[in-house]
Amino acid sequence: MQATDGIVQESPRNRSAVRHPASAEARVAAYDWGGLAASLDAHGCAVLEGLLGAEECTAIADLYDQPDHFRSHIVMARHGFGRGEYRYFDYPLPGLIDGLRTALYPRMAVVANDWNARMNVAERYPDRHAVFLERCHEAGQGRPTPLLLRYREGDFNCLHQDLYGDLAFPIQVAILMSEPGRDFTGGEFVLTEQRPRMQSRVEVVPLRRGDAVAFAVHNRPVQGTKGNYRVNLRHGVSRLRGGLRHTLGIIFHDAR
């Protein structure tokens, strides 16, 4: 495993689809979290290459046509969100998705707590995801938020923020389930950042099947000449030129 510019790279690049599947905790623990935190600080996002194998991606994408796994189905065009569709998983979550959500959270909480301290935000996040979900449920946010998105030719996702209630964890993760250039073309993950008195900065994040991107949901701190200041972020997906694209979204807070 290598770390380049704060982005972890695994060697070989394409892991075998028939490899022995490590537990969610073991595979998450294998990354260079110091490097990933540095990338989140520098760019507002960080890539975890090869978080899922090819067979796992196919199995998760295939769930889309099994409605018993989901609590709701959203057609983006009906709400002005763009074009495409997605489904929110229902509890209990599929085992691997639940395991990844649980294993990723404490690593993200370290970064989130540092960001809040630097932005003078009082909220601090507990070490364990189960404790944070208890806070969400006490605040009336009890609906699960992990989702599976599907895009076809011409589809796109407008720039947005996934907040869902008063309690919102400041980092989320998206995992690409399809292979660019083979399964689809276009459809790049896009992150925009608005700094005070400056034009928006755009980050286009290249991903391959099984790669995950962790990114800021709403705000993050940036060091300026007079200390840290808060910047606002939005994310989306550019227009799909052809094919079929699935993405798994892991959001750590629950919704109202």
Number of helices: 6
CATH architecture: Sandwich
CATH topology: Jelly Rolls
Q: Mind telling me the CATH class?
A: Mainly Beta
The total domain count is 1
* Average pLDDT taken over every residue: 90
Overall geometric form: globular
Helix content: 25-40%
Specify the CATH homologous superfamily.
Answer: q2cbj1_9rhob like domain
User: How far is the first residue's CA from the last residue's CA?
Assistant: 40 Å
Would you identify the regions where 5 or more consecutive residues have pLDDT less than 50?
1-20
Radius of gyration: 17 Å
How would you describe what is shown here?
The chain has 256 residues and is α+β, with helices and mostly antiparallel strands. The chain has one domain (25-250): Sandwich (Jelly Rolls), CATH 2.60.120.620. Helices cover 25% and strands 34% of the residues. The strands form 3 sheets. Strands 3, 4, 6, 7, 9, 10, 13 and 16 form an 8-stranded antiparallel β-sheet that branches. Strands 5, 8, 11, 12, 14 and 15 form a 6-stranded antiparallel β-sheet that branches. The chain has a two-stranded antiparallel sheet with strand order 1-2. It starts with a strand and ends in a 6-residue tail after the last strand. Mean pLDDT is 90; it is low at 1-20.
